[in-house]
Amino acid sequence: MAVNPASTPANMAFDAQTEPYININSDIHSSQPTIHVTKRHDRSTLMMLLQLLIKPFAAQLVSNDTVFPAGSPQLTPHKRATKRCRVQERKVEEIYLYDIVPTVGKKSKLGVAQKRMPGETTTEPAAAAAGGIKEEEEKKKKRRVYYYSGGGWQSPANSEHWFFVSELAKQLHPHGYTVTLVSYPLAPNSAAPTSFPAIMRQYRALMELAEEEDEEVVLAGDSAGGNIVLAVLIQALMEDERDGIERPTCTSVMAISPSTDLTRSNADMHSIAKKDPILRVPFVIDTAKKWCGEWSPQDVRVSPLYADLQCIRKRGVKVHGVVGRYDILSPDAILFREKCNQARIQGEWLDWDKQIHVFPLIFRYGLREGHAGKDWVLDVLRRT
Fold first, then answer.
1. Most buried among 100, 129, 193, 236, using CB within 10 Å?
2. What's the predicted TM-score (pTM) here?
3. What ranges does the record give for the region Disordered, renumbered to this chain (predicted)?
4. Which residues are catalytic?
């Protein structure tokens, strides 16, 4: 099962001389696709130079010598986040959560009114800032993003992740959102057979809390985190279908450069490896094995691509995503997207040729593509 990006159908064509954006059908067999894809092929000179510069150092960029103990790692919020936001730590089902709340400075127009969530351990008062939120804003529906960071299932959130989630928090706050970073247990000491059930227990608890708070929830994540949010959604809805119960669920998922097939059997990975300046095939094979542990790499709890996705359509959960074509994980992400469309699942995807793994997270370095990717994610979340 492989997709050759070079052999895309005619209705996926792109005219770079007339328009940098084009909306395409991801499924040529459907006259009315349910997955709306925005496709781009442009690349800035700065991005091209960056890719050339970092490619020789790919191994160092993704290497991690730290092995974390079993269980959820307690994190120290990075200064890139604490300079912009207030970070509140709490724990639900033995997994640490970090609520990221915009602070109000002289240059900020945002008021902060953070209601205490059940299970929160912080003692910091949640008072509204002077000038507070307008009455009409308080009446807006409450929404929350639970963000699962990537890192090969072995590393917690890094500085780019903290900056990204703090940006989401600041930009989405006026739209009723709170952003929460999830510090899930990491491999190899907490591989999927141990970690995934714990993540599922927390997800169920968070959805119960959301229902009590009348709060809509979006699951979001990049790379390994994108894998987790897709797998959690699928597993939860499969269990609901099996039990004949409609338990509370998230309303949508945002998966940025997700890893969807841990068999690493897609032959297209090897041709794209020549263009990918960050990931190497041996690396993604190794991280997949460490996460799978005793589970088969075809188990849908680690490889969402092998799941029956009808359960998502039946519950009306939207599946959004971002993929860059200079990413060896992109062929499997595209297959997953096409499978979503075949299942008639609603969603929006950004498909950008010549872009690297998790490129929206590099916006803080001033790259145009990073800003555009981040802004696309924000736009979808505002409208979701």
1. 100
2. 0.85
3. 115-135
4. 223
